[in-house]
Amino acid sequence: MKKLPIGIQTFSKIIQENHYYIDKTPFIKKLESGGYYFLSRPRRFGKSLFLDTLKEAFSGNRELFKGLYLYDNWDWDKKYPVIKVSFGMGVHRTPQELNLKIIEALAQIERNYDIKLTNQTPSGKFYEAIEKLSEKYNQKVVVLIDEYDKPILDRIEEPDIAKENREVLKDFYSVLKDADPYLHLVFITGVSRFSKVSIFSGLNQLNDITLDKEFATICGYTQTELETVFEDRIKDFDKEEVKKWYNGYNWLGESVYNPFDILLLFDKKEFRPYWFETGTPTFLIKMFQKNQYYLPDLENLEVGEEILSNLDIDYIYPENLLFQSGYLTIKDHYRISNKNYYLLTYPNLEVKTS
Is residue 6 part of a domain? Predict the structure, then answer.
């Protein structure tokens, strides 16, 4: 049997150390021509791994993809300089801390590519890094940003600090608009979908694929993937019971299994709400305790697209946070007078058994 990639977010480690890997590289092929993309998914759902896989593909590391779809379906002669920034590490307590962490991340880019950044501000260094990498390699740059919203969510129960962190991020991301001539692909992931106006002001070409049916299974495991890749593991379990527990997530396409739950099920050989026990965002719990929300009332709740599509510190809806954090998912959807409406439901037994 192969190893279970529990907690591993590095593509090369999964491949080189013989872990199970669900081939999501057909989605990378769809991004080959470039553009600006945004994807929201719950925590521990495979976003960081997908971003790291993107990095390896655009860096031209072909041998890592042997046996995968992309190996024979990619132009490996083209290699792009890649800037990857993750806000997943640590807690961002103040705007000063956040600025320092951005500068540290860009200093790592300096070392990786042997360039010198002379600008002083985080946004200035970011723009300079993009420009210099493009000039040095005579190629456009790929920018990957993971957990773009964590510095805001870390302080969501303290609105004043959250707003200050938002302004720092807004200034940082604003570089992407002016750096457009030097950019090939921008891919941004996070838990929440803050409104473009509040975070990505001016970045009108940003394509939000969160509820795009074509990308519905970009993260998570489909039924076919579970039964083929994990064939030697799933045979020891009642498939219907596995489905009842972990297959409740839907983003307007085929439903998917929670990968964190599946991996721990195979490891522990016991049905438990693993994601709920360890992946629950603390910011969400704090907000619900403060406002005394009664979660069962949200079962089969009907909401409009305006609630699921936008989140801002000044206008926080419980339905929005629950959906974007993974507590609720789409059970059904319909359209009336050119407006989208969604029926929400708890994704599986995780919440019901807590």
Answer: no
